[in-house]
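Late entry, written up from scratch paper. The run itself happened at the end of the previous shift, but nothing got recorded in the book at the time, so transcribing now.
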Amino acid sequence: MAMKIKLSNFRILLDLLGKIDLMDDRRHFASKAGSLSLWFKERTSDLLLTLAGLVVVLLATIYVHFLSPPSWERHSKVVNIPAGMSFHEIGRILEENGIVRDHRGFYLLARLQDAIPKVKAGEYELHTSMPPSEVLTKLVRGDVIKYPVTIPEGFNIYQIGEILEQAKVCSKKFFLEKAKDLSFIAALDFDGDSLEGYLFPDTYNFPKGFGEEQVIRQMVARFKTVYASLSKRAEHLGLSRRDVVILASMIEKEAMDDQERRLISAVFHNRLHRGMALQSDPTAVYDLKKRKFKSERITKQDLLRKSPYNTYQIFGLPKGPIANPGLKSLQAVLYPADVNYLYFVSRNNRTHHFSSTLEEHNRAVAKYQKRSKMEKKKEKGKKISS
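Output as recorded:
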């Protein structure tokens, strides 16, 4: 009985000691919490200064990598971004040229703006005082350098291809393939076996490596804009667009003097109305495998050659245009001079003699061919004496 009382008292003592320890823990925790609160109060100013410092460092990092140019001195650089290059490689090229300070920061900027897949290849004019965001905007916009490329009136697709290749706009080979691509021609709303005649001669601004399809689309769009103002007149005369362009291409190759375009046009119209062969020399050599230089004479053998373009061997219009005519020749087709001329021959001074009868024409041919032979003999004599 006494043993039971002692155990009971012992348990009560343990419970009491446990409660005392719990009270001590609470007092200790409260003491610690109070100490922590006091520590924060005592160091509030230090914490705020530290936080402010971190914000300043963050803002400075953003400014350096995203907003500030790599240099305050402006030095222009031409930078080429090849097609298919990764953005990391682009960033390194820009860093090497001093256009961006750090290619990794530039990459992060592009990622944040979701601009990486939007960057366009090409040749860019950039400078060292451009902020990274401005550089990125220019690459996304595709604001590449463009060079003026002049396509003279009367050039054919082969000559145009050479100009474009020399200007590094596109390959002549691929340009010609595209200009003869029947599905592409149909998609542009034209017929025929090439786009000869519809590549409007003008001065264009093309970037290097622009590509043959884009070049052709621009030139064809220019033609359509120009022809839109002439289409009603063509309909009034009963001429199709293709007829107008074929005749204009012939006038373009024959005329040296602008004043004669409408006269040459009248000759062609008059001969067509009478059912006469047009007998235009440039049509006889258009589709020669070995193309003649401008200075080479057209021979009798050329005129006798069988070809769907040779108007000495066929009646009516040739198979298609023989060059790409300008506005003046297109207008000349639609507004021929009111004359009855049927023939013309070169005076060998960039102008022609026009005749209404064959007899008059033959006299003019004899006269100017004789004069031409005499001038050639004189020229040879000068070369020998010199």
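DSSP finds 15 helices and six strands in the chain.
(Scratch paper discarded after transcription.)
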